[in-house]
Amino acid sequence: MRKENGFTLIEVMIALVILLIGMLGVIGMQYYAVTGNTASRELRIATNLGQELIEQVKSTRYANLVSNADNPLVGTAISGGVAFTRRWWVVPNCMAIALVNDNNTCQALAANCAGIPDGAVVMPVSAIRSRACWTDKNGAVHSVSLDTLRWDENVVP
């Protein structure tokens, strides 16, 4: 009898099963990486849209700001098949906004001042909040809110 070198069919099949189990783990990690990248991209786009809206409102003359109003942006921005809706609120003589019945969506909401300013001193500042909302491909609703202040350019400190 001569001894033959090589692998038996059973050894090859066991090696393939072990390789398959390892590959399934890699495929699972790839799925979570793609899902995380998608969520990150949507969050980045919403933040950029909110910041763009803040910059537009801050570049508006103080006297032309629409006060105590819910301001929807007409139309939506679409990126990667996801539609983003934006709104903003302006409250004059205020340092912080509180939205009535806020549920972190882009619904029409009334805006109030979160803190009562000193009645003897008129604050030449308006609080501004912008919000970008979207529904991901799984149907979950998300939003990003950004707050800022707009000082009256005509008031000398």
What does this entry look like structurally?
The chain is of the alpha+beta class and 157 residues long. The chain has one domain. It is 32% helix and 29% strand. The protein contains one helix and seven strands. The strands form two sheets. Strands 1, 2, 3, 6 and 7 form a five-stranded antiparallel sheet that branches. Strands 4-5 form a two-stranded antiparallel ribbon. Strand 2 and strand 3 form a beta hairpin. It is rod-shaped, with a radius of gyration of 27 Å. The chain starts with 8 loop residues before the first helix and ends in a 6-residue tail after the last strand. The relative contact order is 0.17.
Q: What share of the residues does DSSP label as strand, in percent?
A: 25-35%
User: Could you give a short account of the major beta sheet?
Assistant: 5 strands, antiparallel
Helix content: 25-40%
Q: What is the alpha-carbon Rg in Å?
A: 27 Å
Contiguous runs where pLDDT drops below 50 for at least 5 residues: none
Total DSSP helices = 1
Task: Report the principal-axis shape.
Answer: rod-shaped
Could you give the distance between the termini? 104 Å
Total separate domains: 1
Give the key terms:
157 residues, five-stranded antiparallel beta sheet, two-stranded antiparallel ribbon
Task: Offer a quick outline of the entry.
Helix content is 32%, strand content 29%.
